[in-house]
Recover the amino acids of this structure.
């Protein structure tokens, strides 16, 4: 893989970036591939990368209707953690966290993974019982997790309002020290460059408009740039999953909702960690640029607009000010939305489907950014072997028939 140095950065700056070498090719689509991945977000690109790197499948294409990372990957609030309650979820997210820990080196691309820790606050006795149960479950699964009292939380986050007079007083928190944040679009770009270097065709502005079957088998996809054949198709389109499932004659147990995020003007460094509260219902971190990165829960209606409604903005700001009254004079700069596809048990689907050769990776809801490396890794295994890996076997579509749901609403951190 090519090395990129500070000298090449300086050279490109001096030539006004005019001769900047593209990070990946923009090939014309071929007539046929061994596998097609639909969706050029982090999960789709990671799937392509691990397929090429670990499973020797190089004649593959990623088809993206817009630009790489233009979906939820480039719209999320970048929180990465693995402190899920149930064994199956903890194992999948912890695999991902371990991959995060070596990702910049693996991709030779700085994804700015920052293990600044994540606090999940408790505000009443039941919160604290739930937190304690999750911390214990995490530790039994080898996932780092600590239970903190109010004094420990206040010491670590001096600006947090821990007054007993607060409407929702802080009683304590769970803390995962290995958790943190990463630069979201760098993740898409890093995977794209590394996949391209292994021969993967990454094709932007190529919308999939149909999925063709021959009886029970998938045979290819119709796109805005013509028909492309493939015996294996992996669908990784986040908020658009049910639309793509419909093209193949399948019904997905997901709902699409807008989820908003906000960033403030840049201020001096004041918050060196991530704070989440389920009860007050908001979360916040400070980016390396200095802006406060903020979010809360989904907009309750179904929709495909990447915007969201005013009531959620108001609710979110109230929650943040409840926790950090001192931010009341910080100006908000920008707001946007992504479309998340939520499953009834707040866990993803990484699965074969009733159509042979057709695989779905979806349902990550509000929490899939953290799973990007692990999801791509496990989904690549599933496509390559036509069988799930033991890490994603519990996340198959069958669970909605068998009833073996994995309810992670409590660990989602964001109501949905
Ligand atoms: P995406 O990045 O959405 O990629 C799917 C791609 O498919 C898109 O680029 C889209 O254009 C493309 N596509 C769709 N239809 C077609 C088609 N017909 N043909 C071709 N391409 C198509 N998760 C966390 O872990 N931590 C967080 O802090 C966090 N915060 C969030 C905050 C917000 C505001 C949002 C919206 C989400 C947040 N998430 C978070 C969730 C996380 O962003 C997603 O779960 C994750 O990024 C999904 O990645 P993906 O690659 O599956 O989807
Ligand atoms: O899953 O940790 C999470 C999360 C935080 C904000 C949105 N999702």
């Amino acid at each position: 893989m090519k090395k990129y140095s500070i000298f090449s950065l300086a050279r490109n700056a001096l030539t006004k970036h005019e001769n900047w070498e593209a990070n990946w090719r923009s090939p014309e689509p071929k007539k046929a591939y061994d596998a097609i991945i639909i969706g050029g977000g982090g999960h789709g690109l990671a799937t392509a990368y691990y397929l090429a790197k670990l499973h020797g499948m190089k004649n593959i294409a990623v088809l993206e209707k817009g630009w790489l990372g233009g979906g939820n990957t480039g719209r999320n609030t970048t929180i990465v953690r693995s402190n899920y309650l149930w064994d199956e979820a903890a194992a999948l997210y912890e695999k991902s966290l371990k991959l995060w820990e070596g990702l910049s080196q693996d991709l030779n691309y700085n994804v700015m993974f920052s293990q600044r820790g994540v606090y999940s606050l408790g505000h009443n006795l039941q919160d604290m019982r739930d937190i304690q149960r999750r911390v214990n479950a995490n530790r039994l699964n080898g996932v780092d997790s600590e239970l903190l009292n109010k004094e420990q939380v206040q010491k670590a986050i001096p600006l947090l309002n821990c007054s007993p007079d607060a409407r929702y007083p802080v009683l304590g928190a769970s803390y995962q020290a290995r958790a943190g944040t990463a630069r979201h679009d760098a993740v898409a770009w890093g995977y794209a460059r590394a996949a391209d270097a292994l021969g993967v065709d990454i094709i932007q502005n190529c919308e999939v408009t149909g999925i063709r079957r021959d009886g029970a088998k998938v045979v290819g996809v119709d796109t805005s740039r013509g028909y492309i054949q493939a015996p294996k198709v992996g669908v990784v389109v986040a908020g658009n999953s049910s639309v793509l499932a419909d093209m193949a004659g399948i019904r997905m147990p997901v709902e699409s909702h807008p989820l908003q995020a906000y960033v403030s003007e840049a201020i001096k460094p004041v918050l060196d960690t991530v704070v989440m509260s389920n009860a007050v219902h908001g979360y916040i971190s400070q980016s390396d640029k200095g802006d406060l990165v903020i979010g809360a829960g989904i907009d309750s209606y179904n929709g495909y607009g990447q915007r969201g409604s005013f009531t959620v903005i108001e609710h979110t700001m109230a929650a943040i000010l409840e926790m950090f009254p001192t931010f009341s004079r910080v100006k908000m700069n920008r707001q946007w939305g992504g479309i998340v596809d939520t499953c009834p048990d707040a866990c993803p689907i990484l699965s074969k489907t009733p159509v042979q050769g057709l695989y779905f990776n979806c349902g990550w809801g509000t929490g899939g950014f953290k799973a990007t490396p692990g999801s791509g890794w496990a989904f690549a295994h599933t496509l390559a072997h036509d069988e799930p890996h033991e890490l994603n076997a519990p996340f198959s579509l069958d669970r909605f028939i068998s009833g073996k749901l994995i309810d992670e609403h409590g660990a989602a951190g964001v109501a949905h």
Q: What stands out?
A: Residues 38-44, 63-66, 70-73, 75-79, 207-208, 236-238, 240, 244, 259-261, 295, 338, 340, 364, 366-370 surround flavin-adenine dinucleotide (ligand 1) (CB under 6 Å). The mean pLDDT is 95. The CA atoms of residues 238 and 362 lie 5 Å apart. DSSP finds twelve helices and 19 strands in the chain.
